[in-house]
Amino acid sequence: MSSSDSEEENSVESCVIKIVMLGTSGCGKTSIVQQYTKGTFTTKTGTTIGAAFAIQKLFIQDQIVSLRIWDTSGQERFRSLVPLYYRKVQAAIFVFDITDKNSLNGLSFWYDQLKQELKTLPLLVVAANKIDLKENNQNYEELINTGKKYSKKIGAKFYITSAKTAEGIKEIFEYISNTIVEMDKLKEDSEEFTKGGSREIYDIIDDNNQKNGNCC
Question: Which GO terms describe its molecular function (predicted)?
Fold first, then answer.
């Protein structure tokens, strides 16, 4: 057993991250999730009805991180159900197919829906998927450049991916995990600093009251 395996066994699950996959039907959301969680790829994934759920654990910054990935349906008849999975979401991955311009144009629907449903937007990622099919599409570079511009516009991190070859897949989820773990750590440090500062102020006030002989 490696030292990392031993460390992981001795650690407790201390961070749970909820991720939602968004995009039009057929853009490769399910294939991305399967490639990341199972290391497999198939051209026959079937249509997602409502949403599918997957869990993947990884060891980051001395703690076990559990990714709860919701793979939502891109079909129009199920779009009204997707907001049900936005509750407490911490990261959203917008996926488009580099061979399908409509899938890129469709990202604005999911972004607007997410923005409408949530007071604060989660961490955002845009994945330009199916890069393994670039030879079949002469306009793929144009779509990628447009995708990059859109990502910048909405404040999302941009990745080029292939669910078939696994290109860029691991990097997306590691980016999300590292970023959120770091954000949580900064939040904890800030709260500790605030509590510590408050205690010092109260101690000073109490000390001054004792010196002055004040009482209630």
Answer: GTP binding; GTPase activity
Q: Is the CB of residue 100 less than 8 Å from the CB of residue 25?
A: no
Q: Does residue 84 lie within any of the structural domains?
A: yes
- What span, in angstroms and rounded, lies between the C-alpha atoms of 71 and 50? 9
Q: Name the domain count of the chain.
A: 1
**And the tokens for 156?**
């999302």
Distances (CA, A) of 78 to 24, 73, 87, 210, 214: 11, 6, 17, 67, 67
Contact 68, 53 (CB under 8 A): yes
* 12 CB-contact burial (10 Å; exposed 0-12 / middle 13-18 / buried 19+): exposed
Q: What is the CATH number of the domain that holds 181?
A: 3.40.50.300
- Kindly report whether the global pTM for this prediction surpasses the value 0.85: no
Q: Is there a contact between 53 and 18 (Cβ–Cβ < 8 Å)?
A: no
Phi-psi region of 88 (alpha: psi -120 to 50; beta: other; left: phi over 0): left
Distance CA 45, CA 38 (A): 13
Domain membership flag for residue 50: yes
Chain segment 65-104, per-residue pLDDT in tens:
999 999 998 776 777 788 899 999 999 999 999 999 999 9
Inside any domain, residue 23:
yes
Residue 175 lies in a domain: yes
Q: Kindly state the tokens that stand for 12.
A: 């407790």
Domain that holds residue 128: 3-189
